[in-house]
Every structure is written in C-alpha cells, then in structure tokens.
Write a structure and sequence with these properties.
Rossmann fold, 429 residues, Ubiquitin-like (UB roll), globular, 12% strand, alpha/beta
Length: 429
C-alpha cells in the first residue's frame, strides 16, 4: 500500500465524503485559482499549450490527447461550444458521479477553462437522467459561482463570458458516443453522425465543439494552477501521465473509486491491496478493465500495470478504467450473454450490422448457456462478430463483439463443455 501512503489525491481529495464541497470550501483549497490565473495571466493558446505539455489524455475511454483535441478548434469568429460528456453509462463506471456529487466546483472550473481556451461562451453538461443528485448539485454550484462573479457574464471582472448549463438526458448508452450526444442535445433521437465533418469543425448546432469527459476536465484546474511539469511527473511519462480514478467492482470485498497515478499499481495490487481481495478468497477468473466494452483479461495478466499502454499490450484497453472482477465460480458463457444482452438493448438501431448482429449474438450465446448449443455455434459467433466489427458508424458495434470474441478465444473449453454436456456446468444437476 506504499502508493496509498505517498500519493496525495488530486481529483478526489476527500475520500468517504458524500456531501458536495461548497464554494467557500473549494476556494479554501485554492479552488478557482487556476481560473483566475488563466483569465489574468494567460492567453487561450497558452492554456491549450499547457494542457498539451501535461500529457493529459481523455479519461472517457478513448485516451485521446486533450490539448490536441482543443487545438483542432478553428481560430475563427462565431459561436463555439463545449459539451461535457457526463452520460456515464458504461457498466461498472461510477467515477464521474462521485466527482459531480462531491467536487462540483472542480468540474465547473475545468469546464470554464476549456471554454476560455477554445473561445466558447456556452457550455453544456450532458448528464444522464438517472443522476438526479449530481445534476442538482451541479446546478446549485453553478448558481453559487455565478453569484460570486466567477461564471456567467464578465467572469471575474474581465470581458470573458462563460455560461454553463446542465442538460439532463433520458438514459441511453448511445449518448456516450459524442455525436449521438450532440444529436440528443439538439432535440433529436440520439444516433451517431457520419464523420467527417468532425465535431471540432461542425459539432453542436453545426458549430465548432469540444466534447470532453467529466474526469478529463476535472484534471485541468490542477494543470493550470500547478503547471504541466508537476502534472507530467505523476504517472508514467510521456503517454500515461497524471492521476486516474479506477472504478473497482464485481467479486471484490471493497468495491469503490480509487484514485492513483497511472501505471502505479498492477491489476492484482488494485484488487488485493485496495479492493480487499476477492470475496470468500476465491480465485480470479477474469477481469474486465473497461466495463463491458473491452476484451476480458485472464488471470495470467493480473500483473499488468494499470496504464493505457500496458493494458493495451496485454490485449485489452483501459478505457474509463472500470474494472469488473469475475471469480472462479462465474459462468463465462452466462457473463458473455448478459453483456451481449446489454449491447442488444442499447443499440440505437441505425446500423444494420449492429442492430441485427447484437440480437443474433445474444440468441446464440443464450442457447449455448441454456444447454441447446451445437459445435458449429462457436464459429458462428466469431463469424457474426466479424460482420459487425469495423462495419458500423460508432464504437458500440465494435464493443459488442468484445465479450464474444475474447471469451470464445480464452475460455473455449468452457463453451465446449456447455455444448458437450448440453447444460451449464455451473448449475447443479
């Protein structure tokens, strides 16, 4: 637990707290110091360059360099927008919820800094409708900040205007895809857009738009206040810098959010040292490192460091760092069927391969798990997956194939046992 003793939390410095920090409490911890520094001592381009130099990568899943994304916004006149992706829909992901509920002003300060950097006067926080408490607390924090002259018109007495609005969605996984989020913001059914044009050129209301995840923007105030050199000293430079919130759930004794430097611990250490180990001392059968959207990692990969590049080298992806632990008693076929049921339900239906393919994958997985599978079903699953992956507009279709392809390849013997015995071997006779 040496990392826990040495590391000073940046994003969630009040572990165990459930009430939101007030504006006074946030300012007592140097809150909005970065905002004042940016407005009085830095140009928008300097803010972008500082974020670039920090090495901050998007925390929503893709891991794209944040400063580079901001720099894509054209230096032209007219309206520009910031859209904050707070539609935290990935199973096993709950980091943004804690940030918004406990550290709302940190989130707002990050949104304001992004808005200033790209020249946007309006920012929308697109939050999933189920996050009622988080949305209420964000709106209360916005009102506090506006009353103090920090947000709204003439921020801190300057000519900069930044208005932040909370937009409550209706609970659809597809809204986590950035262009579907924009469609929903504009009042239409959330379906991914064809690209190009990309949102940086033609986003919300067909104007240049930056779309960032909540955790991503929560990192920005510390970067501006304390400098990119300090930030990049955390983690594993140059590609895996800064703190990261790891959501740990599944068959562990202490599920929760754990903030640690990128690459500081292995999967095994997160489970054992922070999560208290597996329930009842069972063995780990597999770990999903990015909710249900990335290939499962088998127990021989437990010593993989938790950073973007290491997890990718192990055969999966870190994504939003939502680790779900499966123990030795878990039926992999049933787990895959449940994951596929989720994707089938959440498919927006725009792309035929995704709409039809996820339904068929779920049907085949279910019949294998229920004892009605045939040997040819395994190749059918892989063939169906090949007809979806890379043939759809957004990543949902690709994500939907991960539970199938990875489990068939890594746990083929378990699938074959289901088929041979015509039953689930994890169920009693």
């Amino acid at each position: 637990m040496s990392v826990a003793l040495d590391y000073q939390r940046v994003l969630l410095p009040h572990p165990g707290r459930t009430e939101p920090l007030s504006l006074d409490e946030h300012k007592a911890e140097d809150g909005y110091a970065a905002w004042q520094k940016a407005l009085t001592r830095m140009t928008p381009d300097q803010v972008i360059e500082e974020v670039k130099a920090s090495g901050l990568r998007g925390r929503g899943g893709a891991g794209f360099p944040t400063g580079t994304k901001w720099s894509f916004i054209p230096k032209t006149g007219g309206a520009k927008y910031v859209a904050v992706n707070a539609d935290e829909s990935e199973p096993g992901t709950f980091k943004d919820r804690e940030l918004m509920e406990v550290e709302p002003h940190r989130v707002l300060e990050g949104v304001a800094l992004c808005s200033y950097a790209i020249g946007a006067e309006t920012a929308f926080i697109y939050i999933r409708g189920e996050y009622v408490c988080a949305a209420d607390r964000l709106e209360a924090a916005i009102a506090e900040a506006e009353a103090a002259g920090l947000l709204g018109q003439a921020c801190l007495g300057t000519s900069v205007n930044v208005r932040i609005l909370v937009f409550r969605g209706a609970g659809a996984y597809i809204c986590g895809e950035e262009t579907a989020l924009l469609e929903s913001l504009e009042g239409r059914r959330p379906m991914p857009r064809s690209r190009p044009p990309f949102p940086a050129v033609e986003g919300l209301y067909r104007r240049p738009t930056v779309i960032n995840n909540v955790e991503t923007l929560a990192n920005v105030p510390s970067i501006i206040d304390r400098g990119s050199g300090w930030y990049s000293s955390i983690g594993v430079p140059p590609r895996n810098t800064g703190p990261k919130i790891f959501c740990l759930s599944g068959r562990v004794n202490r599920p929760g959010n754990y903030e640690l430097p990128l690459g500081a611990v292995t999967i095994r250490e997160l489970i054992d040292d922070y999560g208290g180990g597996v329930i009842d001392g069972k063995a780990v059968k597999g770990v999903l490192t990015a909710g249900v959207s990335a290939p499962i990692l088998s127990p021989d990969k437990l010593d993989t460091k938790l950073d973007y590049d290491s997890v990718q080298a192990a055969g999966s992806m870190l994504g939003s760092a939502s680790l779900i632990v499966l123990d030795e008693d878990t039926c992999i076929v049933r787990a895959a069927a449940l994951m596929e049921e989720f994707f089938r339900h959440e498919s927006c239906g725009k792309c035929t391969p995704c709409r039809e393919g996820t339904s068929w994958l779920h049907k085949v997985l279910s019949r294998i798990e229920q004892g009605h599978g045939a040997p040819a079903d395994l190749e059918l699953l892989l063939s169906l997956s090949g007809e979806i992956s890379g043939k759809v507009l957004c990543a949902l279709g690709d994500f939907a194939t991960s539970p199938v392809v990875a489990t068939v390849k890594q746990f083929r013997d378990e699938y074959e046992k289901h088929i041979a015995e015509q039953r689930c071997p994890f169920e009693p006779w």
